[in-house]
Amino acid sequence: MPHSVPPLTDIGPLPTASTVRTVVFSDFDETYLAHSGTPEQVRSRQALENYLEDAGERHGLLFGWVTGSSLSSVLGKARRHGLRFLPHFIACSLGTELHVISEAGIQPEPGWQRRMLTTGEHLEGLAEEAFRELRTRGVPLVPQSCRAPGSRVISYYYFAQDPERDARQLALIRRTADRLSLGVNLSRCNPAAGDPDDCYDVDFLPRDCGKRHIVEYICRLYAVSEADAFAFGDSGNDLEMLTAVGRGLLVGNCTEEARARYPQVSARSHADAILSELRGVLP
């Protein structure tokens, strides 16, 4: 289970609004943070940071990252790219972990941690059963080697072949996960975030967690209607989050798979897309 992290000396938390009226959920890699870090992208991200700092109290904003990356990976990237602030919460490892951030440091959210204690107990055995069954049925999955200790996500790659065959194979993966009472994330990999070309992430996780469940939990925790929340993403694994809120938007640099499956796409990219949408609704 996740542990507390002391306050970071080089990155502080966003100021906290006295009353939360709106929640903003953002994917991290290639949505909030552009990995290439061009001068224009850095300026856009800094402008977004300034907006979140200034508008948080005025609009009662609670802002968080919801990401497939581990907490240590997110914090490492935040440091390397010189981010000024950490958000109010980080839901990492595809929403299987939830951390709240304050001047006291980074703490596991108690209610979510209790929830995780009662789910996913047999994840490794069920994921291995799914892997073996799919292999015997001609679905080749390649284990990913970057699993963090204690992670409640077990990930594989499925390398694309041809569209018709891929559709059948991915549907079989979904049916197999459902039969075994596993959650599953299937999304086209994004090479801009360091993924291999021409493949899909296949992530097995406990059924009662994930990005959509994080949206539902946070909105319920802060008594905010999901219809009044925002969400931003760039890939297929963000779509369940985008469809769970009233204002879900893909950034303009999103993957083609995500663009084909979701109609609301910004004309702007990365942090610039987030800032433009928030300023347009919450000036």
Please tell me about this protein's structure.
The protein has two domains: 12-117 and 210-281, HAD superfamily/HAD-like (Rossmann fold); 123-206, yhjk (haloacid dehalogenase-like hydrolase protein) domain (Alpha-Beta Plaits, 2-Layer Sandwich). The chain is globular and about 55 Å long. The mean pLDDT is 91. Helix 1 (39-59) packs parallel to helix 9 (270-281) and helix 4 (123-136) crosses helix 5. It has 283 residues and is of the alpha/beta class. It is built from nine helices and 13 strands. The strands form three sheets. Strands 7-6-5-3-2-12-13 form a seven-stranded mixed β-sheet, with helices on both faces. The protein has helices at 39-59, 71-80, 110-117, 123-136, 163-179, 211-221, 239-242, 256-261, 270-281; strands at residues 12-13, 22-26, 61-66, 85-86, 89-92, 97-102, 105-108, 142-143, 154-159, 182-188, 199-206, 230-233, 247-250. The relative contact order is 0.17.
Task: List key phrases describing it.
Alpha-Beta Plaits, 283 residues, alpha/beta, Rossmann fold, 2 domains, 13 strands, single chain, HAD-like_sf, four-stranded antiparallel β-sheet, 36% helix
